[in-house]
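pinging the channel bc i need a second pair of eyes. not urgent but kinda urgent?? the chain im working w is below, pasted from the shared doc
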Amino acid sequence: MNNTQKSLVAILICYFSWGLFPIYFKLLKSIGAYEVLAMRILCSFIFMILVVGIAKNKKTIFEEIKKIWDNKKSFLLLVLASFLITGNWLTYIIAVNTNHVLEASFGYYLNPIVTIILAVVFLKEKLTRTQTIACLFVGGSLLYLFMSLGSLPWISIMLALTFGLYSLCKKKIILSPKASLLIETAIVSPIAIIYMGYLASNNSVTFHTFGTDTLIYLLLSGVVTAVPLMLFAKGATDIPLYMLGILQYLPPTMQFFIGIFVYGEELSVQKLISFSIIWVAVAVFCYSAILSMKKQNLVSESHKK
């Protein structure tokens, strides 16, 4: 198996894992969302300490951490990224535990196109014609939902915005996945500890009262969080960008079907129409990615000649 094939396997395992997240976090629905989040942060931090501790390149990782600490601008961006991804995790846990899996999947369909819009606004990147069309479809979908339901899908918007802004911050920081995840969880861990201490002082800690299975699922939430992220980082380097762009829609598609067929969430006519508009945007986005890849191949071939 060559590097590209190994990377493809890593990406598929990562995306498949993310697609199953609703089922996993539904197992923790008995516990409050904030308590799940605090424990998820702490378990992820402890797991990353273990991963870095046994890593062959831990010296390099510590050198990266020192460089980030010395570069105040990059460190502040990483602090912001930590809070954004924490907000994303919290929103997702609330969505799953309040039976809004469809809204969560809608948010992750929105995410790549929201990321493009943020890149245009903050990085002054230019949209291609097909990307502009995809963004217009997204705007049309949100406008339709607002007009038909009388409110915006805030869960979807929060998930797309927090992850899009998180990606934007990370784009400006050169850091390996292990070092990045270790620092990000280290930054928010004190807040998680304070919150758990507050719950303990009020005898409000509940995670240990729902049986051994629930406790094990909660303790493994760090592994479940960190491993797919590291697989993504490992796989993304050798996968063509257009393929990565298309495959990223696997998790929200899985979540969409899980919401309907596993948890019986209602797919109203309004939501179906809105999803249909988004799916058109996704098709346009994928078409744009394929065209871009073909142009790159033509340019590289012409240079070779």
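so The chain is about 80% helix and 0% strand. and The mean pLDDT is 88. — does that match what u expected or am i reading it wrong
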